[in-house]
Structures are given as structure tokens and as C-alpha cells.
Design goal:
The chain is of the alpha/beta class. It has helices at about 10-25, 40-50, 65-85, 95-110, 130-140, 150-155, 170-185, 185-190, 205-210, 210-225, 235-245, 245-250, 265-275, 280-290, 305-310, 320-325, 345-354, and strands at about 1-5, 30-35, 60, 90-95, 115, 140-145, 165, 200, 230, 255-260, 275-280, 295, 315. Strand 12 (about 295), helix 15 (about 305-310) and strand 13 (about 315) form a beta-alpha-beta unit.
């Protein structure tokens, strides 16, 4: 069996790593297409290096740009590889423009399509990711859902054929790499941090980075929290912060440590040892949950409702007062209940493809 896998952004590299391993262990051939949506070393290559993902068979090197232009360039490149490689399946991950381009290319050429992380819904149509995931689900032949909630979302949209509850491949990845991160990462020592002695923050979604009011409010909240905050800054976010002016940049120089983006192992190490995580990233919400770290989500909604229902995640949007107030809340008692599968999602996906 030949599988053509489309990835393009750092969360997809993490989700794809355990599936690539499972495909190889089952004796199947994977042809990996990297769209180049994330393209510099800190956002792309370091993940391939750390996760042991083979070098891409094709790198489209599309880079950043307007949604229509970017998706069209990806669609063109993926279509060409599909015609050349004639795979049995196309696999796409998540909800980026790379996901949508891969889905459309497969659908137009009648190549069977599998969507990993199917069925997620924020119910916020202002998010470009919501359109990408909905359209991809309705193009797909096999829909691999991480949670029962995702299965229910698809059922409400009339999708029941080809739906499989397999669990979350990000959970597979955490189980594979958390101990590796503990052994190999020196990021806490490098930054002079004590376990549970800091907060970890990330901001990258357009609803926050492209809205100066939201971005100022979040930065102001981080400054008001009277604890060290480690803030790996996405390149696009760094550009938007610079556009806000010198007063914001100067304010963020105190206990808020604005650092360059980190590789997967360093981020896993920081997540495991943080007292609290603040993020607008879906992946980090889950990783916080996996590690039993309280999370404040800098959005008004989440696809990962299980984390909120269990009391380990709270939705605050960009409200400064709510961010500061929730940052003072103690860790919930006990451990988060299991909600994302057994850690064998990748093997189940390969079994269904075979």
C-alpha cells in the first residue's frame, strides 16, 4: 500500500510522526509531501529532526501568503504529485490550508482520502480553520476521530459512513516522546527555571495576533501576572508585537521572557514542568491536559470541550481581567480523566487503511 501524506505546519509534523512510524512498521510505503506552510528551521526542520520523520519526498516550498494564493499553490503542487505517484490513499491532518489543499486535490482526482483529527468543531465560522476542517470532512472517505464529541459532530452533519473513533495521534506522540524530552532537553537549565516556578504562554491565532486590541490585552495580562512567564513567540506574532509600538515591547521585557520558537522536545519539557499554560493553540490545550497542567485558553471557544468539561481548561478569550484572575486558580484535584484514546490511534488508523 502506498500512502501520500500531506503536512505543512508544526502541529501536523507532531500528529504525523507516530502514524509514519506505524505505516513503516506495517510494511507500507509513505510518500511525504511538505507544503512548506511553515518553512524555517525553528518552525519546521527541527521537528523532522527530533521526531525522526523521514525527509519529505517533495517540498513544495509554498511559504506564507494570502489564503487563496497559498492554497492554490499547494493544490497545484499536490495534484502534480498525485498524478505522478498514484497512491492508494491520501492522508491529511487537522485544519490548515495544507489540509484543505490535500483534500481538494485527492477529491478532484478520485483518490481515497483519510482525514486524521476529523470531526472537530469550534462553531466559529470566523476562524479559517473551521472552514478547512468542515470542507475536508465532507470530502473524506475515512474520518479518524480523536474523541466521541467529534463523532457526534459528524453525525449531526449527516456523516456516519467511514467514521472511526481511534483516539488522538498527539497523545500517541506524547507517550512516545515525553520521556525522551525529560532525558534530552536542557531548556529549564538554559532559562534558569525551577519546576512549577513559571507559566508558559503561546499566542499565534489570527483572532489574537491580527487584532491589536486583543493582542495588547493579552500582553498586558501577562505583564500583570506576578510570576515568571516564558513566551516562545511565533514569527508572525513577533511581527505584530513590533507593530504595536515601543511601549509594548518595553513592557514585555520584565518577567515575561519572550524567546524564539522551540523544538518539540523543549516544548514538551516546558509544558510538563509549568505551573500553568496560557495559549490559543489547540495542540497545547491537549498537551496540558495530557500532563495534568491547568490551561487558560485565550479564545472564547475550543474544539477540545472535554478539557473544559473536566475542569482542566478555562476559556477566557482576550479579557485581561479574566486572564489574571484565572491565573491565580489552584490546580484541580486528582488527574484528568482519559478522553483521547489508548495511545494506539496510529496503529488503528493504519489498520483501517490496509
Amino acid at each position: 500500500m502506498k500512502v501520500l501524506t500531506v503536512v505543512g505546519a508544526r502541529p501536523q509534523f507532531i500528529k504525523a510522526a507516530p502514524v509514519s512510524k506505524a505505516l513503516w512498521e506495517a510494511g507500507h510505503h509513505e510518500y511525504l509531501v511538505h507544503t512548506g506552510q511553515h518553512y524555517d528551521y525553528g518552525m519546521s526542520q527541527v521537528f523532522f529532526d527530533e521526531l525522526g520523520i523521514p525527509e519529505p519526498d517533495a517540498n513544495l516550498a509554498v511559504g506564507s501568503g494570502p489564503h487563496g494564493w497559498q492554497t492554490a499553490r499547494m493544490l497545484e503542487g499536490i495534484e502534480r504529485r498525485l498524478l505522478e505517484e498514484r497512491p492508494d490513499w491520501v492522508l491529511v491532518y487537522g485544519d490548515t490550508n495544507s489540509t484543505l489543499a490535500g483534500a481538494l486535490a485527492a477529491c478532484k482526482l478520485h483518490v481515497p482520502l483519510g482525514h486524521i483529527e476529523a470531526g472537530l468543531r469550534s462553531f466559529n465560522r470566523e476562524m479559517p480553520e473551521e472552514h478547512n476542517r468542515v470542507l475536508t470532512d465532507h470530502c473524506s472517505d475515512l474520518l479518524f476521530c480523536p474523541t466521541q464529541t467529534a463523532v457526534a459532530n459528524l453525525s449531526r452533519e449527516g456523516i456516519s459512513v467511514g467514521v472511526h473513533l481511534v483516539g488522538d495521534t498527539m497523545y500517541d506522540a506524547v507517550l512516545q516522546f515525553a520521556e525522551v524530552a525529560r532525558r534530552r532537553s536542557t531548556i529549564l537549565e538554559d532559562l534558569g527555571l525551577a519546576p512549577k516556578g513559571y507559566l508558559l504562554a503561546t499566542v499565534h491565532r489570527p483572532l489574537n495576533t491580527d487584532n491589536p486590541v486583543n493582542l495588547r490585552s493579552i500582553l498586558s495580562a501577562l505583564e500583570e501576572i506576578d510570576e515568571p512567564v516564558v513566551f516562545p513567540v511565533h514569527p508572525r506574532t513577533r511581527q505584530r508585537i513590533a507593530e504595536l509600538g515601543d511601549d509594548v515591547r518595553a513592557s514585555a521585557r520584565h518577567h515575561v521572557r519572550m524567546i524564539e520558537p522551540l523544538g518539540y522536545l523543549d516544548m514538551l519539557s516546558l509544558e510538563q514542568q509549568a505551573r500553568l499554560i496560557l495559549t490559543d493553540s489547540g495542540g497545547m490545550q491537549k498537551e496540558a491536559y495530557f500532563f495534568g497542567i491547568p490551561c487558560i485558553t485565550l479564545r472564547a471557544e475550543t474544539e477540545w470541550v472535554e478539557t473544559v468539561d473536566a475542569g482542566w481548561n478555562v476559556l477566557v478569550g482576550a479579557n485581561k481581567d479574566e486572564i489574571v484572575r484565572c491565573a491565580r486558580v489552584d490546580t484541580p484535584p486528582g488527574s484528568p480523566p482519559a478522553a483521547f484514546g489508548s495511545g494506539r490511534a496510529s496503529q488503528e488508523i493504519v489498520h483501517e487503511l490496509s
